[in-house]
Write a structure and sequence with these properties.
- The structure is a homotetramer of 341-residue chains.
- The first copy, chain A, contains 14 helices and 14 strands.
- Chain A has helices spanning 14-23, 35-48, 61-72, 86-89, 94-97, 114-125, 153-165, 177-181, 190-196, 226-232, 241-251, 255-276, 296-302, 331-340; strands at residues 2-3, 54-58, 77-82, 101-105, 135-142, 170-173, 199-203, 213-217, 280-281, 289-290, 292-295, 306-307, 309-313, 318-324.
- By secondary structure, chain A is of the alpha/beta class.
- Chains in contact: A-B, A-C, A-D, B-C, B-D, C-D.
């Protein structure tokens, strides 16, 4: 079985395993106050060219989303997001379990737009009904989105302007950040992105690490007391250095972008393979998630040797499915798949 | 600097690093549905001799506590615990953040007793005031406790009887379970413990793993839907196999008890060293946490070469401090410490 | 200014004021354990012909919704509802603040239908994604809806069948229950409604009382410990008798239906007035809430002497507005309004 | 049966019933935006001589406590209070249900003191453990306390100084405020009290109203968005004027203090009766709650004609019980009781 169901089906880059081996006997303080975390933070701050930011390491995406949103919102506020946003669909109600409503904007491509966000803010702050409706307190977007699409620099700038106009922080879920940045369709640098938002995170779990996400809070107003929220949400790893060690390796020698580029190259190669065989995509194939439309018969046949994910029904005879490449995807496996198409 | 501040200052047993290396290229399904998790679960079920139990892997202790308690309690219920219990003191309000009150019993040694628990249950269910008071919905104890003490088989059996009499589940926090079981003062087997409670967890983070706790739900009534709660609390690791791989190694060839015994041997050796030099302990030195009473002057001197934790004030001239050994503690480091005493 | 903005702009039926006067010096126990509450509960049980049900009195609608939903759901569950449902729109996130997600179905008339509900249940329980998605734990509908529409007996029966097929309780928000039951379009009795759901409430605030809602739990499975939740949500009035006294008056001599009928007669009279003048309605004018489409110019003119609510934009020149009649609406006021149209 | 079990066993002052009668046909806007609420707020602001304060009306004490605390705290913060504080004992976990921990200080008389509060703040903010412990975010005290005792001006001033030193708001639960202010042992005016705290409430339910509490936020920093929290906690009464009408009557012509004084006079008269018969009190008899120690035999005898509350066991033969007078207590009923002693 060759797997294309996700980007978390393999382990990590070999540099991380080496580093874990080399540091295993070291004695360090716990809870992320160690030297490895310090070094990793410095590398990330350098990469985003923002000295005022603070970097924190958490274990996974749901945890990062919940911790960030809980640390910023007050009890009467909610998070503006696409209805397809991860926090609204696949986190088992984690945001609501902390007391916060997802204020959803319908989206067909995974993205939400500045004018839609501004309209929602105005509707909710309208004086007549205001205290009866949840107050927008944060804007959540994913880069890339759950549908593999990415925001252009212009689109993100427009959202950022709305966020700042209404003094509502902008949070970018970067669980697959590297794959967005490495996309040939992308015109944003990580520095641009850091400047345009108030908080974002750099996904490690899906981009080279065993596990872990680096949360970057660029807006100083939201740094205070953030560690309390990490602890409260179970994200303060006793052996916090494990996360420092991993991000040290990822951000040494531009490794993060190097492996992201490999993944995107593989996705592009696969995407071309699909197109060459006449397949169409449901969503624009911009990053490492591809959503081809395939006949049910062909799907059944492919399933014998390849794993991939059902996404949604297309028509009577066809479904949309998801193929995902990763930082470890081998070209030969894609060749096998293309041959089978 | 030689560190005795905690049992999470080093990495993991070498077998785990080897296993991570050997499995790194494997492609597996995510979220803990892989073969490694399946094998680790089987090994644990065999160790506790309980086929009806279910095993789940989580990332850390606070996360395990919150996930278990949230999955069992309803909104009007709370958790009976010692006032010194970890959930009541050092989890940054994680239990309350999920909506649940800690119903605390004052404790001087970290333990709570069957008669105290029964009294609290009766007081709270008293018909006149009942709906005005939080209903006890779970009993939380730690084995070993936060003060390094352990429950005897008789004490635990008595608590278990109360729990079953009132149909309130008993939950044992085993963040340091191995060190309790390996204690020369202990008369409980892991099978006894599994039988006497409804849910417990086997600490990995502090006992040989990089990170991870194995939650064992022995009472079938509480297994349903538990995975939803893992996901909601950010505990469903995308690369879930990381936890399976670690617990496979820990439960192969009785490794878990072997390394626990080493840790306890080191603690006993250190404890004898303290006693030989005339030091007294604040709490019974039963496991790998030692709480000697040391003059402030001596503490300042020791701090130059050794790290350990301030616990509480003893008198004008002395404090209680905490020294902790781990599965990796070296005898030579203890010798250095004893010489310095 | 003649007010048509809502059905809570006046006081209560005179019988209630008399009863409050007559009982003011009585000494009774608190928290709803008094004789007046007992009598009112008996009257309601008789009206719905269901001896196994339990009746509880709460202060208002948001409180009733939150208390019922919190008492039934577990932390990983959510409430299926129309996207226009009151709990999803105008309760300032009260449901989410208790930790629960609103699982919304898009609705154009305020109603949701059995097939839509069944589809959502199946989608969410689908084994592949299940623990990543909130589990449907209760079905919430309003009778009448927020758009003034009502469910037919057939529609409600179909929803009830789905609820029972999947063992998910059906909860009917009856903040305006009387006005639904008194509608000439209605083919349900209060007994039918009680039989088809698991819990509902009888609105008092908008139907004759000063304040108060009577929650009826017909399914015995959900009665246990409900009082804890009332207390927790601030609904256990110290002078609980105030609610008993009011519902005693409302359910003596069929007063509740008598005043509801008056309100509906007034709405019908007004509705005919609108139609006679050539106005169209956005939603079916089935109960006491009317949603005519009126030109902005005319709205501005009417606003000088009448109060009513902006609902939504219709087109460039017209808006949908809401006119509401109540149990105290005077025919002469409607005549003034019709003249002004 | 003559009742002394609480101060909420009767209705309200006759002026309120008259006002409800006189205003019943008025049409007003809902949700507390009406003229009656405006007038009542003005009367209260005048009584406390603080123009910058904002006044809000809620339905009951638990609701007021939860709404205030939720509106001020962030998710990682908790409320410092006496272990006997109402929020910690008899609100069915309402504070925790909103996500907040009660940080309790042991109290033998219902009061907590400035030095204890300061010590708790310092312990929790200690840099080593800080993010692992709940951050103190509000100080909650009751005036009078749950044991009928009151703070002196000096004691309250000292607490206020600690609160301001650490920038933690001070909240005074005044469910029985009038009875504290009218106590002969009291040296505080309502103006003093308003100045020394950041938020307090004036109890109506137990002091002359049918129901309702007037929340006064004197610190402008905590006024913003408070209405959202009222709505979220079910406290925004549709017919909000009901609360305005009641507080208008209570604060016209100093009625609130007049009826409070009557209640205290009755309590003093009863207290003297107890003492004359040789009874002792468990807590200082400072307000309208008396806690005499009575033999079990005598209690059984008294129970035939009088209702009062069991408080706690005193010794083998005696219990502490609670007798409460109210704004409506009749002298003749106290005479009957004294005769029976």
């Amino acid at each position: 079985m060759i797997r294309f169901d996700s980007d978390y089906i393999e382990g990590c880059i070999p540099e991380i395993l080496n580093a874990l081996n080399n540091t295993n006997d070291e004695q360090t303080v716990g809870y992320g106050e160690d030297e490895h975390c310090a070094k990793a933070k410095a590398l990330i701050k350098k990469a985003i060219a923002n000295k005022d930011s603070e970097v924190y390491f958490l274990c996974g995406g749901t945890q990062a989303n919940v911790t960030i949103i809980s640390s910023i919102l007050k009890a009467h506020q909610g998070a503006i997001c696409a209805d397809s946003g991860h926090i609204n669909t696949h986190e088992s109600g984690a945001i609501e379990a902390c007391g916060y409503k997802c204020l959803t904007i319908p989206s067909s491509d995974g993205k939400i737009y500045a004018n839609e966000i501004e309209k929602m803010i105005n509707d909710h702050f309208d004086s007549e009904v205001a205290p009866h409706m949840v107050q927008p307190g944060i804007i959540y977007i994913s880069f890339p989105t759950e549908n593999g699409t990415i925001y252009s620099k212009k689109e993100l700038t427009n959202i950022s302007k709305v966020a700042r106009k209404y003094n509502i922080p902008l949070f970018i879920d970067g669980a697959r950040l590297g794959y967005g940045l490495a996309s040939p369709h992308n015109d944003l640098t990580i520095k641009d992105l850091a400047k345009l938002c108030d908080v974002f995170y750099i996904g490690g779990t899906k981009v080279g690490a065993l596990f872990g996400e680096a949360v970057v809070i660029t807006n100083k107003a939201y740094q205070k007391d953030f560690k309390y929220h990490i602890k409260q949400h179970g994200g303060m790893l006793a052996k916090g250095r494990l996360l420092g060690i991993q991000f040290e390796e990822l951000f040494k020698n531009d490794k993060y972008m190097e492996i992201s580029k490999h993944c995107i190259d593989m996705a592009t190669y696969l995407s071309k393979g699909f197109k060459a065989k006449g397949y169409k995509f449901k969503y624009e194939a911009e990053t490492n998630q591809l959503f081809p439309i395939i006949s049910k018969k062909k799907i059944a046949e492919l399933k014998k040797n390849f794993s991939f994910q059902y996404w949604e029904s297309y028509d009577e005879n066809s479904d949309v499915v998801r193929f995902v490449t990763s930082f470890m995807t081998k070209k030969e496996n894609i060749d096998s798949l293309i041959n089978a198409l």
